[in-house]
Amino acid sequence: MLEKKEFLTTIERQAAHYFSKGFNCCQSILLAANDIWELNLDQAIIASGRFFQHGMGCGSTCGALIGAHMVLGILDNRYETKLSNKYARKLSEEFNQTFGTTQCSELRKKQSIMDKIGYKGCKRITFMTAGVFYEFWESTNGNQTPSVGHYSDVK
Questions:
Q1: What gap in Å lies between CA 105 and CA 93, rounded to an integer?
Q2: Residues 49-77 as b or e (16 or more Cβ within 10 Å = b)
Q3: Among candidates 59, 62, 63, 61, which has minimal Cα distance to 105?
Q4: Buried (b) or exposed (e) across 87-107, using 16+ Cβ within 10 A?
């Protein structure tokens, strides 16, 4: 069985992998969590994240953060943890503490020209958000660590 640090590294790598394959930030977080926690998410759930890219198309909330919130709800339902809304607020606060904002347009303004080419900066944010989420979930529900996971797509 993988150690917690290995799960952290794997979910980050999976999120970056999916982003590189053309999925947006929200979808990449969903797909990485799907792999790690073996959620067997329906493709409609992944498709539901399609329009959360680029801050919902207008620079609003980062799609990676939205994906993390979606995963929080999915895991809360799966493990019947019955989390309150304060956990959603705490997740947003941790994201904000890590990146300095939750707004896509602000995150993009902070990126270098090189980071904007090919969305390298967004890929990094997606990678890091997967890690932020995993650590958040572990600190909130450490007894719900993934058991097996599947990593066949990790590159």
A1: 18
A2: beebbbbeeeeebbbbbbbbbbbbebbbe
A3: 59
A4: beebbbebbeeebeebbbeeb
Give the residue from 83, 107, 85 showing the smallest Cα distance to 95: 107
Residue 71 CA to residue 93 CA, distance in Å, equals 16
Q: Which residue has the tokens 């990790």?
A: 154
Task: Say what the pTM is.
Answer: 0.89
pLDDT in tens, 83-96: 999 999 999 999 99
Q: Which two tokens stand for residue 23?
A: 């999925």
C-beta neighbour count of 128 within 10 angstroms: 17
Decide: helix, strand or coil at residue 153.
coil
Q: Report the distance separating Cα 46 and Cα 28, nearest Å.
A: 9
